[in-house]
Amino acid sequence: MGTIIGIDLGTSTTEAAVIKDGKPVMVMNLDKEIITPSAVGIDACGNFVIGTRAKAQCLLSPENTAVEIKRKMGTDEKIHLGKQAYSPVELSAKLLEYVKTYASEFLGEDITRAVISVPAYFDDIQRQATVRAGMQAGLSVERIINEPTAAALSYGLFHIQEESHILVYDLGGGTFDVTLLEMFAGVLEVKASSGDNKLGGKDFDERLVEWLNGQFMQKHGVDLRKDRFAMVKLKEEAERCKIALSTQDSFHVLVPMIVEKKGKPLALDEMVTAAQFEDLVGDLLARTHRPIDVVLADSGIFPSEIDRIILVGGSTRMPIVSKDIKNYLDIEPSKAVDPDFAVAEGAAIQAGIIQGSIKQEESILMTDVNPYTLGIRIMDGVTEERMSVIIPRNVTIPTTRSQVYYTCMDYQTEAHIEIYQGESEIVSSNHFLGEFIIGQIPAKKSGVERIAVEFSYNMNGMLAVKATILSTGKDASVEIDMMQEVQDPKGRIDVSNWKESPYAKQFRTIIRRVERVIKDPVADDPFLWQELDDALYDLKEALVNEDLETAQEAEEDLLELLEEL
Fold it and tell me: Would you state the torsion angle of the CA atoms of residues 92, 98, 103, 108, taken in this order, to the nearest 10 degrees?
C-alpha cells in the first residue's frame, strides 16, 4: 500500500516524519532542511514557490506571498496572490504537494498516504478543510490526529510502561492547545482538551510590531502600517527580536532604511529588553490559563496530580512561557521532546501504527476525546434557539450517544434536524455542521410521537447522525465526514451558513417550504424539481453574499415554481 508519512502542517512551519526501524525520522525537504516555512507565493513568471523561497520573496513582493494560511482554514476568506484569489484549502494543498514531492524524493518512492496533525481545538469544518487540502495535494489522508496527542505519542513511544498524568502545552505559531493525558501500561488516554485557535507566536510578534511602530511614530511622525513593504520588514525584525530575547537580555532592532519621509530615508532604531517584552505579552500568556483550567476541571485532575508538563511548539522556546507555567501550576515544565519536531514525529508514529511498521508489542493504544460539545436545535416552549446536548465536550471517542425527543406541534409529520458544535446554550452562537429532514411521522397530537436522535463520533472526529421514529422504525440520517471531499459538479459554493445572513429571517419560511417539497415530491417532473433546487441554491447564495435584490428575485422564482407544482 506504500509508506505513510506524518505531517505537522503548522501556521509558521511545516515538517514531515516517517518511521524507520521502529523509530520516527524527520524528512528533509529539497533544500536539505527539516523545517519548511509555511509560505506560498507566485514568482515573476507566475509559478508557485513554496517554503523558504516564498518566505524570502515576501520581503520584496508581499502582495504575491501568503503566510499564516492555517489561521484561515475552515473559512470562506480568499487569499490574493497578485490578481488571482485562492482559498486557504488551495494554498494549503500547494504546501502539502511540496511535502509530498520532497518526501517522495527523500524516501525514494511515490508517497501518496499521510497522517496530518491539526490543533485539538479545530472544529469539524477546519478538520474537513485540512483533509480536502491533503486530497487536492494527491494524498490519501489516513488519519487526522490532534497535535498535543501526537506530541504525547512522541514522548510515549520511549516511555511506554510509565504510569503518569501528562499535560501537553502546545503553543505554536498561530494556535494554542492544552491536553491532559493519562499513560498506563502502553495505553495513552486523552482525558480532556481545550485551546485557543487565535493565539500563537504570531500574536507575540504583533505586540512587538505595535510597540516598535508606536516608538517610530513618536520619533518621526510616520505610521509604518501605511507602507506594505515597511510592515514586512517590521514583522521580520519583530520575529528576530522575539527569538533573540529567548537567549539574551536585550536586542537592538536596527533597520537603516525602513521608509522615506519627504525623500529622506528614516531608520528604525530601538533597544528592546526581555523585561519590556514580558510586559508587552503578559495578557497573551494569561490567555493560556483558562484552557488549562477547563482541561483540569473536565478531567477531574488537580495540578498536584500532574506528573509531567511537555512543551510543544516553537513558541514554547520563549523562557517567559516556562516561567508563566511554573508560576501558575507550580510545576517545572519538561524538555522531554523537541518542541519543533514532536508533533511530526507523533503523526509518523500514528502512521506507523496504522501501517504496521511499529511492532505490536512496541505500539501504543491511544484514545482521544471530542473537543467540542455536539447537539441539535430544539424548541423548548419558549424559544427555537436552544441547543440540546447529545455528546458533551471531552467525552472519550469513539462514542455513540442518543436522546429521545417529542413532536412539538399537533399533527406534525416531519422533523427538521439541525446539528451544531459549540459551547453556547444559544444554538445560533455555535457552528452549524449539517441538517436533514425525517418525514412520515404519524399525524398525532404534539408530545405523542417520539424521535430518537443518535450521534456516532469516531476517532477522526467524524460525525454520523441518525433520527428514528420510535413508533414506526422509520429513520433518516446524515454523515458529516471529513474524509470524503464533496464536490458540486456545477461548481457551487458552500451555502450552508445562509442562516447567518442579516436577511435570513425574511426568507426562512420559503426556504423551509421548498426544502420540504424537494424532500418529499408530490409530482413526477424531474425538470421542475431541478429548477426548484437551482432556484433554492440561488436564494441561499444571495443570502450568503448579502445580496437582497437577487434574493428577492430568487424568492419570486421559487413562488412561481411552487404555484406550477
Answer: 140
